[in-house]
UniProtKB/TrEMBL annotation:
Gene3D superfamilies: Nucleoside Triphosphate Pyrophosphohydrolase (3.90.79.10). CDD domains: NUDIX_Hydrolase. The lineage of its organism: Bacteria, Bacillati, Actinomycetota, Actinomycetes, Micrococcales. InterPro entries: NUDIX_hydrolase-like_dom_sf, NUDIX_hydrolase_CS, NUDIX_hydrolase_dom, Nudix_hydrolase_domain. This is NUDIX domain-containing protein.
Amino acid sequence: MAAHSAGILLYRLDGKGGVSALIAHMGGPFWASKDEGAWSIPKGELDPDEPAVDAAKREFREELGVDAPDVDYAELGTFGYASGKRVTVFVGDGAAFAASDPDFVFGEFEMEWPPRSGKTASFPEVDRAEWMPLERAAELVVKGQRPALERLAELLAEAR
């Protein structure tokens, strides 16, 4: 069975018609020198029987070290990757969160590094998180998440 993840896509309007999204650069040695396709919506795997929105909030906290903002979240949709993995994305207005300028404390994971060395090293799950224009974010996130950013842009355009 393919993995199923959930994540939170925060956006903010700039007052001039522009939209920014909060995305995170994946941590660890495989992503260190990559930019395009190395960013992600803060997300992670659902536990069995866990509501997707709860998993999205938990993973936001685990990856960024701060609680997801207390805003209304709408389910944007479930998007599939070529690998078969699926991610359910919840969207929320992050304007107040952006204004609070939170101090991120990135979660860590362990893996064998260097490969086949028998040694274990710790790496941040993400090594930075940034607000960036929606169009730029769509260029940088992993390919499977681009439809979520496109859907957000469509919904905001319809609301105008």
